[in-house]
C-alpha cells in the first residue's frame, strides 16, 4: 500500500535533505521546474569490516544525498520531487544511484487531494464520477490556465553561467526565459499547456567490458559511468526530437552493472509544451568523407525527416510553430507577476563542476537504430504516466495489470551488444502489445521496466503495465471489436492456470462491489480513477523463492515463470484481504531473477 500523502504545509520548511518521493504536488505549490538531477557512486562492499553494521552504508548514501543537494542549489531550486534511490550489485561492486527533479515551491493553504481526479470512495458499487481532464483542454483555454507557462520559466538567471545556452522567450507570455527542453521525473503538472498527444520514449545503451574483479573493476566502471550517462541523455534527446516533442515527464533512469556489460535504460513520456520552442532539426554526419558515405548519410537524413513528419501527424503536432526567437544570454527578462530568478551557484558542493553541452548533436549514420524506430499501431496508446497526456482518457477502473519477463543471452555472432539490447526492449514492448491485442483500441499506462544481469552474458528484462480499453478511434482500423465480447480478456490474471491456454472475462466491478471483499485491485498507480482512498493500511512486502526440478514436464521455463508470477500476485492479494483492504496501490515488481540450469532441468 502507498503511504498517505504528506502535508504541504511544511514542504518549504528548512530540511537537511528536502527530497520527496511524491511525483505530483497540489495546485499552487509548484512554481518552477529546474530540471533533472542525478548522482551516482561506485563502492566495494568487501570494504565493509562488519556487514551487520549499517554505518558504512549510511555514510555512502549520505555522500550521494549531499551531491544531490548540491545539484539542487546549483539550479536555484528549493526541493526535489519524484526522488528515488536504487542500487546495482555485481559481486562486491555496488553502484548507488539517486534521481529526482529540482523544483521551486511556495507556501499554500490549499488542502492536498487524497486522490487526483477522484470523488467516489473506494467502497461500494457507485458510478465513476471524477475524471481528471484539466491538462487536456482545447487550445482555447481561459486566462487562468495560460498562467501554467510559469512552470516552464527558468528559476535561475543565465547571465552567470560560464557557457552560452539557447534560452528563448516563453512562447505564451513572452516575458521570461525558458529552456529548449525539460526533463522531469515528476508527472505532468495540472494545467500546463500542451499541444497534441504524449507518447512513450525510451533510450537504451549497452556497453561491453572485460570481466574484472575488485578495485580494477570499480575503477573501470567509475570511468565508464559519465560516458554512459552522456550517451543515455543524448539518445533520449534524439528520440524526443524525432517525435517532434520538447519535454519528457516521468523519466526513469536505470543503470545495471554485470560481469561483461553495463546497461542504461531511460524511459519517459514525451509531450509538446506550448511555452517551449519547437525541437531542433536532427542532422547526420558520416565518419568517412567519400561520395558513397555522403550518399548513405543523405538517405538516412531523408528517413529521419520522414519519421519526424509521420510522428507529427500521429501525435497531432501539425500546427506546431517552426520559428524560434532566441534570447541573448546575459539578459534577464523578468515578469512583473513573478519573482526574480536567482543566480546559479556553481561552487556549491565538494566537487568541481563540468558543464557538457548536448545541443546541436551530430549523429553518426551507423547509429540510426537509436533514433528511428517503427511506430506502434495507432490503436495502442502507451506512456509511463497514470494517463495519456493530451487525451481525455485516464486510467479507468476496469484496467488490468500485466507483467511480462524475458530472458536473453548475448550472442557474439549477432555483433554489437548495444543493438541486441535495443532489439530486446523493442521486442518486449511488441510482446506486450501482442498479449493485449484483443482489447484494442486500448491504453497502456504506468509502464515500469526493470533490467537485471543475473549471470555472465545473460540479461533479463521485465515490464509491468496497466491495460484498459480505450474509446479513441484510430484512423487506420475499422470495425474494431467485432465478434468480441466487451469484457473479454486475453489471459487469466487472477487464477493459477496455464495462461497460454485460457481466456478470462474481466469481473464486473459495478455488480461486485469492492466493499464486499471479493475483488482486490492491483495497480502501479498511486490512485484509482474515480475512487477515493478511505484508509491507508500500510506497506506490503512479499519475498518469494520457488524451485522446480521438472521444468520441461511443466511446459517450459515460460510457463513456470507465468505461474510463479500469478502465485505471487495471489499472495499479495491475500495479504491485502488479511489486513481488511480491497486494493493495493504503487505496486512494484522490484526484483525478478530467473536462474535456470538446463542440464539439471531446474
Description:
There is one protein chain. The chain is of the alpha/beta class and 602 residues long. 20% of the residues lie in helices and 22% in strands. It contains six helices and 19 strands. It has helices at 55-74, 143-146, 214-242, 291-314, 417-435, 557-578; strands at 30-44, 79-90, 93-105, 168-169, 177-178, 182-183, 194-208, 247-257, 261-273, 283-285, 362-364, 380-382, 400-409, 442-452, 458-469, 488-489, 504-505, 521-522, 583-584. The strands form seven sheets. Strands 6-8-9-7 form a four-stranded mixed β-sheet. Helix 4 links the parallel strand 10 (283-285) and strand 11. The two termini are 34 Å apart. 37% of the residues are buried. Mean pLDDT is 75; it is low at 1-8, 109-146, 322-338 and 476-516. One of its GO terms (biological process) is protein localization to plasma membrane. Residues 105-144 are annotated as: Disordered. Pfam families: YbjQ_2, YbjQ_3, YbjQ_4.
Sheet having the most strands: 4 strands, mixed
Q: What is the averaged pLDDT score? A: 75
Query: What proportion of the residues is helical, as a percent range?
Result: 10-25%
Which structural class do you get from the secondary structure elements?
alpha/beta
Shape: globular
Count helical runs.
6
Order of helices and strands: EHEEHEEEEHEEEHEEEHEEEEEHE
Low-pLDDT residue spans = 1-8, 109-146, 322-338, 476-516
Instruction: Tell me the strand order in the biggest sheet.
Output: 6-8-9-7
Q: What's the end-to-end separation, in Å?
A: 34 Å
Q: What is the number of strand segments?
A: 19
Radius of gyration: 24 Å
